[in-house]
Amino acid sequence: MSESATAQSGNFIRQIIEQDLAEGKNGRSVVTRFPPEPNGYLHIGHAKSICLNFGIAQDYQGHCNLRFDDTNPEKESQEFIDGIQQDIRWMGFEWSNPKFASDYFEQLYQYAVQLIKSGNAFVCSLGPDDIRQQRGTLTEPGVESLYRNRSVEENLDLFQRMREGEFKEGEHVLRAKIDMTSANINLRDPVLYRIKYATHPRTQNQWCIYPLYDYTHCISDALEGVTHSLCTLEFEDHRPLYDWVLDALETPHHPQQIEFARLALEYTVTSKRKLNLLVEAGHVESWDDPRMPTLSGMRRRGIPPEAIRDFCERIGITKKDAFIEMTVLENCIRETLDPQAMRVMCVLRPLKVVIENYPDGKEEIFSASNHPKNADTGKRAIPFSNTIYIEQDDFMEAPPDKYFRLAPGKEVRLRYGYNITCTGVVKDEAGRVAELRCNYDPESRGPGRRKKKVKGIIHWVSAKHAIDTEVRLYDRLFRIPNPGASEDLAASINPNSLEVMHHCKLEPSAQNLAEGDHVQFERQGYFCLDRKPASGMRPVFNRIVTLRDSWGKLEGKK
């Protein structure tokens, strides 16, 4: 067992596995699986299962199967199959060969025939509404189907004809014959197969009957030799059916299903159906919109996969569902990016400043560290001239007490540069501040600089050398902690989840950044060069996360 596994032995799933290994179960092997349905893109909730299943396999020298649960052809596509594999690889995990439930369609059919022959399954001709009505409730037992006692011969004949396409959708289904009075509704003669005329992304039109998940995944686990079938808590009530199917078929291998709490993150939804609604209604650009909790969206936003893995490790594996605060994820992102993100200066809301006593046409090159805590990253050249841009927020015409940034008559320090003092204000026709006039102190920079107590330090960019860029300030997509519980999902959307800044000014050292590179805009936050730039030559940067938790402050004021 690896050191990582030992360190996490408090995880109850790992404790089960360690006991199984100590007792020599499963030939002292560990085989897990990650079985997504290819009907959408993976999201942050899947990340927890990915890290758990692939991580356990790595730590115990086993292997994890990637298996696509492709039994619902109407909603599945090759696009999602490819996207899921890309996401898992981005998360840092690999597998030998992808597996598909459709690989086992013939075996699953023959196992269903075996259940019919043993009297454990029957073809039911009730409609979906009747089956649902006769299922009963949590307090009332179900009612047996009038087709429950069909002979084995009739059931085999009907099931074969279902496969051959003789019947319409909904005309017949195959059901397990278990117990309609069971306290567990999942054991009340559940449907195993239904008729579905749809083109499958892999088997095309070879099949017109498709097995349901509860029947498929337990047999697939058994066929693949899975030792520990790890799934979220909503499948806990399904475990008796999982075991019943395998016991009824007397499979040579019987995996152990273990449930854990799913990942529920504040200010997000992780329902594929609801995420699809957001895309279709145009509330977001696409599945990889940087505001989406999909892994493709998080990748495009610039969130490092190691931050997501760290987040999944920190929240741990428990048996109790709970909402995780968004700040936990954001802190993981900051802690991952801080030691690796190069520093640059970018002015988001430019205010022009003319330094009147700086010689016209003169230029200087200042030197600054690419990273203040890592000298090995080298230095960058920052040009300076008599016209610069500063942030609009760094100037106030009538400042309050203890305001330390630029104001008429006040002096501030330009980061890496000189001290400047505001000597004049130029306004536009509407009376808004359009430009500032300043003087600089030529003795305020360098080894022998004048020792002045200047509290305000602001960032800037030389107007002559600045790179015009677009910056997208992304924030939380929803304005309430639990949008999934809202009856009106659209009404829960944060109207300020995206602010596009079209006229930002970036220091020229950033021109060598590649798509996907992380950078810290000093005093602003962490950003990523978008993989989908705007038209033209302007680079586009996405804000990954602010330098500090601004949401926590806002919520504290409420």
Helix/strand layout:
Layout: H1 3-7, H2 12-22, E1 31-34, H3 44-59, E2 63-68, H4 78-90, E3 99-100, H5 105-117, E4 121-124, H6 128-134, H7 152-163, E5 173-176, E6 191-195, E7 209-211, H8 213-223, E8 228-232, H9 239-249, E9 256-260, E10 264-265, H10 272-280, H11 295-301, H12 305-315, E11 323-324, H13 326-337, E12 342-344, E13 346-347, E14 350-355, E15 364-369, E16 379-384, E17 387-391, E18 411-414, E19 419-427, E20 433-441, E21 457-458, E22 460-462, E23 467-474, E24 498-506, E25 518-521, E26 525-529, E27 540-546, H14 550-556
Parallel strand pairs: 1-2, 2-3, 8-9, 10-11, 12-25, 14-20, 18-21, 23-27
Antiparallel strand pairs: 4-5, 5-6, 6-7, 13-24, 14-17, 15-16, 17-22, 18-19, 19-20, 23-24, 25-26, 26-27
Briefly say what this structure is.
The chain is an alpha/beta fold and 558 residues long. The protein is 26% helix and 23% strand. Strand 2 (63-68), helix 4 (78-90) and strand 3 (99-100) form a beta-alpha-beta unit.
